[in-house]
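Archive record
______________

***
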Amino acid sequence: MALTRMLLLLTACGAANTGGGSSNPDPLKNKDGSLYKEEFGRVHAARVNMIQRAEQLHDTSYHREGKTKATAACQRVALSEDGEKLRAQNRSILLLVQTMTASKSNLCEGSRADWRDGMAQCLHQLTGLRVIVHNDDGTCADCGSLRRTSCISTGDPPPGLVVVLGGGEDKRLRFLCANHYCGNTGDPFWVDAGRNAPHDYLGACDAYAFDRQGNRILGSEQVSLKADPPTKIAWLPLVNPHAEIRGLYERNLLYASEKDPETAGVPRVTRPQNIARLPDVVFQRRVIEPAFRLIGGHAPIEIIRDDALPKPILLPPKERVIYDDVAVKASEKRERTLIYVGSYRPNKGQLDFLRIVSKETLGPFSLEFFGVRQADVGGDDYDAIQKEVSERWQGKVKLHDQRLSHEQMVSVMSRASGLIHFSNGDRNPRVLYEALMFGLPVMVSIQSMPYIGLQCQPFVTLTDTNGTSAEVTAHLRRFVKYLTDSEKAKAAQRKIASNATIERPWLLKKLHNAQSAIRTFVEEELTEHFVYANFCQRFGICGSLQLVRDPRTPWAKGGKCRRSLKRFENWRFKPWGAHVEIKRALNIVVAPKCVLMWGRNCRDACRDRNKREYRKVSPRQWWQPGSTDAEHDSQDSMRMNSKMQDRVRMNWKKNRKSRLGLGLQAEAGAAYAPRFDESGEPIKSAGEASEALLAIGLRSSTGAAYRSRRDASGKLLPGEDFMVGRDARRKAAQAAK
């Protein structure tokens, strides 16, 4: 009997450890116990999957023997103190490639010319450290010699920096999350790419990721917290902007655990009733993050959004000649042609664009589509596009369905006037930077998640695929006007050069040469040295570089950009589609007992509040080194003006006596000296005091009007009687007058 009880207890403990909400804790097996096999992408005619196809393409006979297609042009910079330690300890930088197109070669083998290879090569050139890339077919390459090498193993020094490229939607991904959703303190729960947590989840999770061969990454072999300095992790998940799992990456704190999934565990932090009403974003920063840091064994993962980093393109010699020629011919007239580059798939948006605008909006310009048909990848819109062109766009639109070489494509870009990219779901596409490097202004949808630094540039027009026909038409007209004005400015420059007379020269002050402006931006902001030197500095390997930024860059202090920056965040508008097991683990299926006055339950009110509070307090972005809590405001949030700051100070003065009544003896900006919380229990830490302060409605960071707080029975909470009495005395004094 005793043995039976012991077995039951052990079983219960095991269920709690795995989160209770998951019936399949092993990410490499199906629920029936069979080995999990995934077909990555489409199956080729040879009946091999994408990884098998990659292995065929990347065999040993594919080496270029050090003859590179394109080479990065980064210069050595001074290292930080941690960087010098990494060099002395012979530690390396590791790039883990989780997603790669099978028809292309591996990184650092000399046959690529995109931003991934540029990052790998540049990190080596900047630091002098050994940079090893672990490609998705299981092979490894040295980014200094551009040759294959042995992969990092257990006996090697741990990497100083691990950069994960892609893999954000891999079906084998697993997350063990702390369960503090809207005040809940249930068991931790498991999440995978098919059973997503709610989009507004603001907690913390251990991430368990696996490479294409089924081996765990970001484990003890690749990450060391005991080293000095400890391993840092950066992850570019490259997630579909419509994928609900983006909420986990961008609103959640992610960690790499030293433990395997079988023995996984996250800190169990009890959430007292007196702070259950706090927004999750506040509880996440003040309680959950310190708890993970306190127990140890969890390496924080820095998530980099697709639109947070530009993608410099490495240019082979022949394309470099075209690039240089564009600068020489910057003042020459360009063909009145707009181009749209992308496969003829529904998500690329060609058909949607033709249907939402009219051909009159293009003005003097024609439109040419360049792409290939890929029905086996994501559908084929070519026939529908062809029909739309024949019915409404005759004489204005031309379709090309033959694949062009990259050199031929950039040659087309060097002659055209502008690029349109109206995709309803993309990941900061490379074509935007190819267009800019060859002098093309761009009109791009926010659903394409373009680099946020492009938004303040006059040669970039943002539009919205969810906008009305009138809105998109207005954006296109603005884009066409900019192109027309640029040609007028170049014509005036040519007249000035030939000493001809210019009519109404004062009008030229508002015009500028688009190609000259774009080239200046590219040379200052889009060179691989500038982009990856900032990346290196942000992660503490490179020293202070004191690079000069364009003052229009959105996050530059004192910047000149006054626009409201737009970022695509679909979870604000669409319901979340979590699996029923996740809903049950988060206690959402069963309505809570707490019901608000207007008939909505407290859980829904908490979710709404999470959305509002997250707009005010956004996670620290990767480009903000050393930022503090006061600097966490998102770039697209409204800055408090002087009047609002004065209002906040006034509210603090008004609420001072109430704070003293609770023992919270602190002025605005000073450290708390707490005594009791709202339930009368002693408060031990300043963090608890701030939460108690927020719990009774004394909003120190906003100018919101004060409202008294009551419990379920209608009784005033401690400290509230002073505020109610004060208001009553004021009303009585006004009545007496």
